[in-house]
Amino acid sequence: MISSLYIRVVLIFLVSVIGGTIISFFVSTWIFEEKLNENAQINIRNFGQDIVLIYKTIPLHEADSFVSEMKQLDSYHIRIYEAAGQSQSYGKLNGHKPSTVTMEQLKKVVNGGVVQDTPNGIGTVLLGLPLKTEMGTKAIFFETLAPPSTSFVVKWGLTFVTYSLITGSLFILVASIFLVRPIKKLTKATRRIAAGDFNVKLNIKQKGELGTLARSFEGMMHDLQQLEQMRREFVSNVSHEVQSPLTSISGYALALKQVDITDNKRGHYLDIIIAEADRMSKMSDGLLKLSLLESRSQQLQLVAFSLDEQIRRVVVAIQPQWSARNIRFNLDLKTVSLLADHDQLNQVWTNILGNSIKFSEDGGVINVSIKEDMKNVTVRISDVGIGISLEDQKRIFERFFKADRSHSRKYEGSGLGLAIVKQIVSLHQGDIQVESEPDRGTIFIVTLPITTPKE
User: Staple 448 to which of 32, 193, 366, 430, CB 3.0 to 4.6 Å?
Assistant: First the structure.
């Protein structure tokens, strides 16, 4: 099996060109042969009729002398047959083998018939006509000799075919090099990417399919580079997030081994260990949840429910968080019925509202509104908290990303909440956007179809 694209391209071209050239040559030869024979038949018939007229007009010996001196004998060979089969020929054969005249053909012509045949291919015609003389009826046969132009055309055609194949083969060999070169570059680039090297430059400026393939490959390479960077950041973030509670758990567990600690300290240390273990458990659950959502292995349980009622229940459920800081809610919730996954969307509103509470100042206000059109429902959740910079807004839906690193100690969280929100909204074929300015608050805009299509 031929695996090299270069060899396959060359072979396909050669087979196509050679096959097409041969077929074209035979077809053109067949057409040319028909036309040439047709013209030859007309010419020899006219010539034969003239010769017969000569024999009718003048005496036999004078006609023989006249015919033997004719210049047309360079192109025609004449044979005059007696009824018994004896013949007399006129004209030089010049290496041409005369066609055989059968007794059947001879008898037919002597009896007044006409014989016309093309025995030797292109441009050769055998014509038999009855010839009436004072010596009785004879048979005169005319045969065209292969004209010099015919052999020249055949030789020229064969030469042309040979040189065209050689020239075409050279051209395709050169063209194939340029055709296969970008594919070889792509192959080398693929191997380097497989080895972990994403700093590959193709420098392929071709247009058409190969150019499109090269640009798609470069786009894929860029995406893989970003994915690799995200993977490294993910590993780093997980290590960091896990290391902090593990350090606390390990440190306070060692402290508990001391004999002289008071009961209050022991209880305090145990509370910290339990809190850190709970934090790790939540982070583990969040990672598992996000992994299931990203792999699309978690099916949506679609049910019809009241969206406004769901948001009210979430606000009531997280009341301890906002009432303790004197944060107020302004709810402008239009009655909307939605077909979606109730539990998944419950987590969406819990995460977004929890973030709004977390990053709001004490005594702040959070506004929640619902708008509906023919196909979609839009939920806007706005606060007047610390806000998010424009640069961070592009990454807030990445896992473990924390928008305000300067406050990372003040505001607890693993950075998985908004990543989970993004995946849940995407599973519902919706969209989530953020609008924010530092120190002026943040607005989350969630758009969902009223009826979520089933996969």
Answer: 430
What is the three-class DSSP state of 80?
strand
- Chain centroid offset of residue 56 CA: 80
- Pairing verdict, β 136-144 and 328-332: unpaired
407-450 pLDDT, tens digit each: 444 555 566 778 888 888 888 889 999 998 888 889 999 999 98
Cα dist from 259 to 103, 190, 267, whole Å: 138, 62, 14
Element (H, E) at 69: none
Task: List phi, psi (to 5°) of 444.
Answer: -100, 130
Lowest mean pLDDT among 96-105, 222-231, 323-332, 406-415: 406-415
Q: Are strands 365-372 and 328-332 parallel, antiparallel or unpaired?
A: parallel
Q: Could you give the CA distance from residue 78 to residue 418 in angstroms, rounded to a whole number?
A: 105
Q: Coil, helix or strand for 71?
A: helix
Helix (H, G, I), strand (E, B) or coil at 132: strand
Distance CA 73, CA 67 (A): 8
| CB-based contact 382:344 (threshold 8 Å) | no
What pLDDT was estimated at residue 296?
A: 62
Task: Return the bridge partners of 366, or none.
Answer: 329
The enclosing H or E element of 202 equals: none
Q: Tokens 């948001």 identify what position?
A: 311
Structural domains in the chain, CATH included, are: 5-151 (3.30.450), 208-291 (1.10.287.130), 299-449 (3.30.565.10)
Overall pTM > 0.85: no
CB atoms within 10 A of CB 267: 10
Q: How far is CA 326 from each of CA 40, 358, 362, rounded to the nearest angstrom?
A: 114, 12, 6
pLDDT at res. 154 = 63
Q: How far is CA 63 from CA 47, 59, 78, 129, 131, in A?
A: 15, 6, 13, 16, 12
Average per-residue pLDDT for the chain? 77
